[in-house]
Amino acid sequence: MKYDKIVIGAGSAGAVLASRLSEDSNCSVLLLEAGPDYPNFENLPFDLKHGWGTGPDIVVGGTHDWQFTGTASKFSENMPVPRGKVTGGTSAINGQVFLRPLPEDFERWVEWGNDRWSFKECLPYLLKIETDLDYGGDFHGQDGPILVKRHPLNSLTDDQLAFYEACKYLGYKENMDHNLPDATGVGPYPLNNPDG
């Protein structure tokens, strides 16, 4: 079979690109992924289902990681570089955090010469891809394909709750919405796994 466009990798960028390209009914699109594609939530393995994979647990013997390694400099030891080998890519194995860049990150791009990449210019596109199940308003999308949700505080594990309480005790501000432009402090991350 012949395709107009072939997208290699069904990670965050590849899946979005293939989806957008396929909106043109005159364009045939093939999306290739080396890892598995699970048909529904019930079929997801535990490590992907709940999105709690962070740190060493996502790279030790996992079938959903390419097992890449690298070094930060010529003086450092070899270290794991987690890269997802599954539909969803690395976003599927790294805790499924749906955290936007800070406005200052966008402004650096403007300083480097591209004023079309300002926070103000990019915000409509960020809103277009999400449906935030917890918050609305000017900084949260309501009609996008990616569902965004935060774990409620009463669902945190004991170690997560201890960290949260320690941060508050040390004077860190409580922040329940890390996708606001001026967000800082301690609170649950937005995730793109509403069922996990």
UniProtKB/TrEMBL annotation:
This protein's record includes keyword Nucleotide-binding: no
Cofactor(s) in the UniProt record: FAD
Key words, A-Z: FAD, Flavoprotein
Gene3D superfamilies: 3.30.410.40, FAD/NAD(P)-binding domain
Pfam families named among the record's database cross-references: GMC_oxred_N (PF00732)
Molecular functions (GO terms): flavin adenine dinucleotide binding; oxidoreductase activity, acting on CH-OH group of donors
All residue ranges annotated as the Glucose-methanol-choline oxidoreductase N-terminal domain in the record: 3-189
The keyword Ubl conjugation appears for this protein: no
Family classification: Belongs to the GMC oxidoreductase family.
Protein name: Glucose-methanol-choline oxidoreductase N-terminal domain-containing protein
Organism: marine metagenome
